Amino acid sequence: MWDYTDKVMDNFMNPHNSGFIEDADGIGEVGSLACGDALTLTFKLDKGGKIKDAKFKTFGCASAIASSSILTDMIIGLTLEEAEKITNQDIVEKLGGLPEQKMHCSVMGQEALEAAIKNYRNKGEAQPQKEGKVVCVCFGVTDTEIKKVVSENNLATVEEVTNYCKAGGGCTGCHPQIEQIIEQCRPEKPQADRPATKKPEKMTNIKKIQLIQQTINEQIRPTLRADGGDIELIDIDGNKVLVAFRGMCAQCKISEFTMRDVVQAKLREFVSDDITVEQQNESD
C-alpha cells in the first residue's frame, strides 16, 4: 500500500480540470497504454498570452491523476515562459511528496506540459519524434530522457532512474547502458575544488529529503564505491535517517564506524547538525 499525502489523495479522489479542450492552443501527449501510463494535456490562452484554461486526460494510477490535476492548477494564470520553468520536483513539492516508485508520474506531467508548449509554438504540427537513441526498448525511453531525469534529480542508481522514468523496469537488459549514462552525468569536479556548502537554516520536508539524497549521492556513495561498497537510503523520520549498507560494506566489521564517521558526519556537514543515522538490521 503506497503512503500517499492528503494532497495526493484529494487530487486523486477529486481531480481538478479533467477533460479535453476541443479548440486548444496547445496539446501534449506523452506515454502510451502499452507502457501503463498515458497523459494528454491541453491548454487555452487568453488575449494576453496567459493560460486561461488547462485540462488533462490520463490513464494511470493515483499518482498520475494527482500529478496531472495539481499541474493544471499550477499553470493556469501563467505565461508559457513561466509555465515551462515548472519542474517535476515542483509538482512533487506541491503534492507534499510522492513515493519514490511513483516519481515518474511527476516527470510525465512535466513532459506533457513541455510537449503542449512545443505543439503551440509549432502551430499545431505533429509532435516530433523523441530526441536521442532508445535505450529501454520495453518502455521506449531514450538516452536523452534518461540524462534529463538523472541531471535534474541527482539520480545515482538504476533503481532511481526506473522510479523516475520507468527505464530499466522491464527485461533489465538496458541496465548497463543506464549505469553508463549515470556515470556520464556524474559531476567531475574534484572534491578539493568544490566550494564550501552552507547548510540551509530552514527547509521543508521535501527539501530536506532532496538534500539528504543529494549528499548521499555526491559525498558518501563515491567513497563507499571506491572500496566495493554502497549505501541505500531506507527511510527518513524527522532528523533520523535509516540506511542500509550494500556490497562489501554490508559485511564490513567496521560498518558502525563508517556509519558514524562517514555517513553521519557528512549529513551533519551538508544538511543539519541534528541528523542521526541508524543502520537497518538484516531482520527488518
What is the name of the CATH architecture of the largest domain?
Answer: Alpha-Beta Complex
Provide the domain count: 3
**Beta-sheet strand percentage?**
15-25%
Order of helices and strands: HEEEHHHHEEHHHHEEHE
Q: What distance lies between the first and last C-alpha atoms, to the nearest angstrom?
A: 18 Å
| Poorly predicted segments | none
Oligomer kind: single chain
Q: Note the overall shape.
A: globular
CATH class of the largest domain: Alpha Beta
Radius of gyration: 20 Å
Briefly note the structural class of the backbone.
alpha+beta
User: Helical region count?
Assistant: 10
| Biggest sheet overview | 3 strands, antiparallel
Strand order of the largest sheet: 1-2-3
CATH topology of the largest domain: Sufe protein. Chain: A
Helix content: 40-55%
Per DSSP E runs of 2 or more residues, the count of β-strands stands at 8
The chain-level mean pLDDT equals 86
Structure description:
With 284 residues, the protein is an alpha+beta fold. It has three domains: 6-121, Sufe protein. Chain: A (Alpha-Beta Complex), CATH 3.90.1010.10; 134-185, BFD-like [2Fe-2S]-binding domain (Arc Repressor Mutant, subunit A, Orthogonal Bundle), CATH 1.10.10; 191-279, GMP Synthetase, Chain A, domain 3. 43% of the residues lie in helices and 18% in strands. The chain has helices spanning 6-13, 62-75, 80-83, 88-95, 103-121, 143-153, 158-165, 175-185, 205-226, 255-270, and strands spanning 26-32, 37-45, 51-59, 134-136, 141-142, 229-237, 240-247, 276-279. The strands form three sheets. The chain has a three-stranded antiparallel beta sheet. The chain has a three-stranded mixed beta sheet with strand order 6-7-8, covered by helices on one side. Strand 2 and strand 3 form a beta hairpin. Helix 2 (62-75) packs across helix 4, helix 4 crosses helix 5 and helix 6 (143-153) crosses helix 8. The model has no long low-confidence stretch (mean pLDDT 86).
